[in-house]
């Protein structure tokens, strides 16, 4: 029997959380906002933290995810400090309790590029001014995934500056090794984790370690959301293969095996980025896996045309026990010079419906004409 099938979601998570508090003597304060680490409700008494009984939350929460986001780089900075870059999707990005995406660049100045001294035409290093973090928060983002191949483009200094820029903008992040970022909304604790096949990220290739980290997150929170940056890249990378993928000599992970393993360990939603194109959506043990939503923004940065221009915002509403309430695939198209617009032609919706059926058969997600995701 799989861990998912053998799990009593709400009761087991509540018991696991209580046990974790008792064993560790946790003193973390819960808050209605953004933060990292565990969050447990406590009462301060003479300098000691005493756990307080917590009523199980019942209100569902709505989440939105978008893929690879590069607001500016050495390949071009948008005019007016980028303030108009996300205007066309701003209203939509705000229609959720929590919106997150994959920030595939550093928000930093100076430092040494990973491509310094390289003559390779396939080396790209992305860096935008730290002030661009405000563009994300103003547009409606709450949290960014930094588990990807460009978060370390300017070394540890660039990564530290990115963290600081996000914090100043009121954003939080996830994706570092062993990082569990817990956010509380309306009494519901939500754990966010990001995985990628790089040493500065929680490792995508180490599935056993990923399972352990997800179980730890499930003991701290009501819901667990996982982002993966995985797979090959390019216009022809639209299918999720069976087995490990490689790109430019890199092990880019076994997306299917990884996603199934973390769901079995307690993840309630898995979302993805990395291939720069749309990939199919799968139902697995009642949980949704959106393997890739394509590029979301890349000012003069990403290739455009055909499948490379198709993107999406995935919106999913979950109960605190992880059960699915409703979902929707919102079609987006990147228009020159690489900025997102809602797409009335629904091209990415048509593509994801086809890919979901081709790649996952009966487990593939089904979509209505207006993008609603049918329950699995």
List keywords for this structure.
376 residues; alpha/beta; Purple Acid Phosphatase, chain A, domain 2; eight-stranded mixed β-sheet; 21 strands; 22% helix
Question: Could you give the topology of this structure?
Answer:
Layout: H1 9-24, E1 42-45, E2 48-51, E3 61-70, H2 87-93, E4 98-103, E5 106-107, E6 127-128, H3 133-139, E7 143-145, H4 155-168, E8 172-174, E9 181-185, E10 188-196, E11 202-203, H5 207-220, E12 223-229, E13 246-247, E14 250-251, H6 255-265, E15 269-273, E16 281-284, E17 287-290, E18 295-298, E19 310-318, E20 324-335, E21 339-342, H7 347-360
Parallel strand pairs: 3-4, 3-18, 4-7, 5-6, 7-8, 10-11, 10-12, 12-15, 15-17
Antiparallel strand pairs: 1-2, 3-19, 9-10, 13-14, 16-17, 19-20, 20-21
Helix pairs in contact: 5-6
Could you characterize the architecture of this molecule?
The two termini are 20 Å apart. The N terminus is likely disordered. This protein has a single domain, classed as Metallo-dependent phosphatases (Purple Acid Phosphatase, chain A, domain 2). The longest helix has 16 residues. The chain has 376 residues and is an alpha/beta fold. A hairpin with a 2-residue loop joins β16 and β17. The chain has seven helices and 21 strands. It is globular, with a radius of gyration of 20 Å. The strands form five sheets. Strands 3, 4, 7, 8, 18, 19, 20 and 21 form an eight-stranded mixed beta sheet that branches. Strands 9, 10, 11, 12, 15, 16 and 17 form a seven-stranded mixed beta sheet that branches. It has a two-stranded antiparallel sheet with strand order 1-2. Helices cover 22% and strands 27% of the residues. α5 packs parallel to α6.
């Amino acid at each position: 029997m799989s861990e998912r099938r053998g799990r009593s979601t709400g009761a087991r998570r509540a018991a696991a959380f209580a046990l974790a508090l008792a064993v560790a003597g946790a003193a973390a304060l819960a808050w209605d906002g953004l933060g990292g680490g565990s969050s447990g409700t406590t009462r301060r008494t003479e300098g000691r933290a005493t756990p307080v009984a917590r009523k199980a939350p019942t209100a569902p929460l709505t989440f939105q995810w978008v893929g690879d986001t590069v607001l500016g780089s050495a390949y071009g900075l948008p005019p007016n400090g980028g303030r108009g870059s996300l205007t066309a999707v701003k209203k939509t990005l705000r229609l959720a309790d929590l919106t997150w995406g994959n920030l595939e660049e550093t928000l930093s100045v100076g430092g040494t590029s990973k491509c310094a001294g390289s003559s390779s035409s396939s080396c790209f290093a992305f860096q935008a001014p730290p002030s661009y973090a405000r563009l994300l928060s103003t547009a409606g983002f709450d949290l960014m995934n930094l588990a990807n191949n460009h978060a370390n483009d300017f070394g540890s200094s660039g990564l530290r500056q990115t963290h600081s820029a996000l914090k100043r903008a009121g954003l939080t992040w996830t994706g570092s090794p062993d990082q569990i970022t817990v956010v509380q909304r309306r009494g519901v604790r939500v754990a966010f984790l990001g995985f990628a096949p790089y040493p500065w990220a929680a490792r995508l290739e180490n599935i056993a370690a990923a399972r352990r980290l997800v179980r730890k997150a499930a003991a701290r929170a009501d819901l667990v959301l996982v982002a993966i940056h995985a797979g090959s890249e390019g216009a022809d990378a639209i299918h999720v293969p069976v087995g490990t993928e490689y790109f430019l000599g890199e092990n880019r992970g076994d997306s299917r095996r990884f996603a199934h393993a973390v769901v079995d360990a307690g993840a309630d939603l898995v979302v993805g980025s990395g291939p720069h194109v749309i990939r199919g959506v799968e139902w697995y043990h009642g949980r949704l896996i959106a393997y890739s939503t394509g590029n979301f923004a890349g000012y003069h940065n990403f290739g455009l045309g055909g499948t490379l221009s198709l993107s999406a915002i995935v919106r999913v509403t979950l109960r605190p026990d992880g059960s699915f309430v409703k979902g929707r695939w919102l079609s987006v198209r990147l228009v020159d010079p690489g900025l997102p617009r809602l797409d009335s032609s629904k091209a990415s919706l048509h593509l994801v419906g086809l890919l979901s059926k081709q790649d996952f058969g009966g487990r593939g997600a089904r979509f209505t004409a207006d993008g609603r995701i049918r329950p699995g």
